[in-house]
Amino acid sequence: MHRFLSENREELITRCKAKVAQRPWRGATLPQLANGIPLFLEQLTRTLQAEELGDLAEGTRISGPSGGAGSAWTPMGLSATEHGHDLLDLGYTVDQVVHDYGDLCQAVTDLAVERQQPFSVDQFRTLNRCLDNAIADAVTEFTMHREVKMWRRQSDSENERLGVLVHELRNSLQTASLAFTALESGMVPIVGSTGALLKRSLNALTGLLDRALNDVRVQAGTRGQQHAFALDAFVAEAGQIASLESAARACQLVVPAVEPGVALAGNRDHLMAALVNLLQNAFKFTHAHSQISLHAYVSADRVLIDVSDQCGGLPPGFADEMFLPFSQGSFDRSGLGLGLTIARRTLEANGGSLTVQDVPGIGCIFTMNLPRFSL
After folding, report:
1. What span, in angstroms and rounded, lies between the C-alpha atoms of 159 and 365?
2. Helices in the chain by DSSP H: which ranges?
3. What is the pLDDT of residue 366?
């Protein structure tokens, strides 16, 4: 059989390719599949040669014993393992891994019948043993590699989910701390708007913790309660929150008057959190003693809310990356790099969008674009 395999190697590979072409193809190149059928065919040939010469130990060393015990550390097992790894990365399924080796078995059998080439029972046993070991090793690696990739994806998702929760908790705590500092100074009454802001921040913290404890904290961007609310009051509250940050950062906050009678519809708490994220991001990166602008206005049937800063502009190419999770474009690593990700997902979940305009040498303009609600 080893002479038959050597003499018909290219024909067997061609037939295997033809069989693979009949199934969904994943765009694999010959180098990517080098550990597959061509290498297996070479190792099978060497195993048969050794056993024909009576060197059973050498045959077992190349392809492993019957039953597969220790076969993963043989040359055939190692190449099959690498092949299974490659096929998963190329998008194959486990049944396609098995079929990859089954194609060769069928090709060898068909060609042997056509060429009237008889094989002994022992040779067929060797062929089946090698196929069995190679398939087992390839599928084992394929399955393990797939499970590792799934675990990593799940782990990344859980890390991001935890990061979102921590980010929102920190934002509410920061607002509460600033409000408390203002109240502690004795400059504002506790029954006034600053006291109300502190109460809302504490309520927000309670809500976040309750959702976390009940495992119903959803990923940012999921729709919650949808209600209509006034734009001017919404912007006024955001401006009040930002004014505390403005005083702490020694930056000027400018909030132009908002057209009365304009309404939005969505999850107000989530949208407020998104807007506060943008404002905190602006204060974090803008130059000291510069200006932050919060400007809300109407354009046709859309409501636009701009948050402008004076950070000096974005690093080259960063505008396309800054909305990715854990993306940070400055030396300031005090945050998690999730604020903009959360904000964009929240806007999209409420029928809107979030974009950024880079103004080189000056700063950035983040724009929340939401549908206007008709009263």
Report:
1. 29
2. 2-7, 9-21, 37-52, 56-63, 75-89, 94-114, 121-184, 193-213, 231-249, 268-285, 339-349
3. 95
3-state secondary structure of 218: coil
User: pTM of the predicted model, to two decimals?
Assistant: 0.45
pLDDT of 320 above 90 = no
Neighbours of 50 (CB within 10 A): 20
* Structure tokens that stand for 371 in this block: 């549908």
> pLDDT tens-digit profile of 168-213?
777 777 777 877 777 777 777 777 777 777 777 787 777 667 656 5
25, 27, 125, 173, 237 from 249: Cα distances, Å: 58, 54, 79, 17, 19
Contact residues for 253 (Cβ-Cβ < 8 A; gap 6+): 239, 242, 243, 246, 291, 292, 293, 294
The answer to whether 71 and 63 have CB atoms below 8 angstroms apart is yes
Query: Quick one: CA dihedral 166, 167, 168, 172, positive or negative?
Result: positive
Contacts of 223 (CB under 8 A, 6+ apart): 267, 349, 350
CB 362 within 8 A of CB 268: no
Strands 302-308 and 263-266: unpaired
